[in-house]
Amino acid sequence: MSSKLLRGTFILTLGTFISKFLGLFYVIPFYQIVGSEGTILYNYSYVPYTIFISIATAGVPLAVSKFISKYNALEEYAVGRKLFKSGIIIMLASGIVCFLIMYLGATTLAAAFTSVDDPEKLQDIATVIKAVSFALIIIPFMSLIRGYFQGHQSMGPSAVSQVVEQLIRIMFLLAGAFIVMNVMNGSLVTAVSVATFAAFIGGLGSLFVLFWYWYKRKPYMDELLEQDKGTIDISLKEMYKEIIVYSIPFVLVGIANPLFQLIDLLTFNRAMDSMGIPIEESEIALSILNYQTHKLVIIPVTLAIAFSMTLVPSITKAFVEEDRLSMKRQLNQTFQVVLFLTLPAAVGLALLAEPIYTLFYEYDVLGADVLRAYAPVAMLFALYSVTAAILQGINEQRFTMLSLLFGILVKLSLNIPLIKWMETEGAILATALGYGAAILINLIVIKIFSGYQFRLVVRRGLLIIIFTAIMLAVTAAMYKLITLFLSPESNIQSIFIVVICAAAGAGIYFYLAYKSKLVFFLFGDRVDNLLRKLKLKRA
């Protein structure tokens, strides 16, 4: 893997990781402010919002980064600038259109999500959906700027703007919800509406950061224009045709997870109702599945998302330059690193499900059971993100659409039968089967069209599985011992349980990787440099 890819990956990984962690930890005070009923309302609005955001941006950051990376490799820098200037208007227009559709269709969406014919409840859900829809106006425009920077292999603006956006959003969300509930004695619906409107405020903060970066880096961009070969004169029509071809797979990949969640929103309550389970109970279970536990499960996937974002421009460059050796080397290391970091995190999350759920929310048997069953699916989320990004990088995005549509079909066809059989865990199993089917198709296509051999990844993957199993066995024994003295039903005691067990598990895992030299194969001399800085190894 090239140093530039690793550097870009590190920057985006750090930014995405911080952003995801901020998005995780705010749920603790937010849950205390609005409770379970508030998170149910929040969940009803955010799943459709995520889908609309993906449609409004049309996969712009990755599609634009791929487009610009391609023409920059050919030293045709003016093509990317031309796209950027015209794209500003297009993105503003798409954002406004999606905002109007979501805002005006809020009542229809609310009716589709619940099986209860209660006009007041439908109005509450519609109000929250309308509040979050305002963010659609500016997010597409913001995504265009991020894509432009990423296409120039400049990951800093995207990373910093993500963190700033998340910080401002969370501060406004928590402060707004707290003031409404505890100072103004307002309604729960108003508090959650303010919390969802925070997405718009966070977007404004991110946009300001991106404008600042543009001002600082424009002289460098202008210098590149002076080096432009000028041998390619591509019209806007041809340009957008190419972008659309790129963006459709990116849209589908971006909304993969929300689409799976949307299927649960549309079918879960109705399936549970057909079994005679009251709507109040099914809504709580749905909130635990789609909001509380999902927030925790998505954390191990952070690295895979960061890799998929940086992977596309780099693989595209190698693909355009026909440097197949470099491309295969990048693919090889990327698969291994994602497995190395995601698998133990997912397994550890499943093992410590009870104290982790108590720590972030409150002690709840159902919540812990759902998290325990859901945690391993993080591995599938990660693999899907990476394999889909690889297909886009080698220009076989048509199969990305095929694999996702097949995965969604599996989820859609099995969801209700499995929910009726296993309740909440049935929805999780349907998600796992859907993602598994999509990943299998992606891997087959990668092998056929890139000639990539998985033998080394399989061997290293088996070693990673063995190390994870050893870590799991030791940590499980330690967990059993600690819970003789500490209770996972207590928030304070859960902190000690999680910290001790997680530290022990991570220590065992990385010790095994270090002694076997696996960590050096994956990260090279950077491991020694890090150990020297931590004074754990002699210079």
UniProtKB/TrEMBL annotation:
It is a multi-pass membrane protein. The chain crosses the membrane at residues 12-34, 46-68, 88-113, 125-145, 166-184, 190-215, 243-263, 296-316, 337-361, 373-394, 401-421, 427-449, 461-482, 494-514. Keywords: Cell membrane, Membrane, Transmembrane, Transmembrane helix. InterPro entries: PG_synth_SpoVB (IPR024923), Poly_Biosynth_Transport (IPR050833), Polysacc_synth (IPR002797). It is found in: Cell membrane. CDD domains: MATE_SpoVB_like (cd13124). This is O-antigen/teichoic acid export membrane protein.
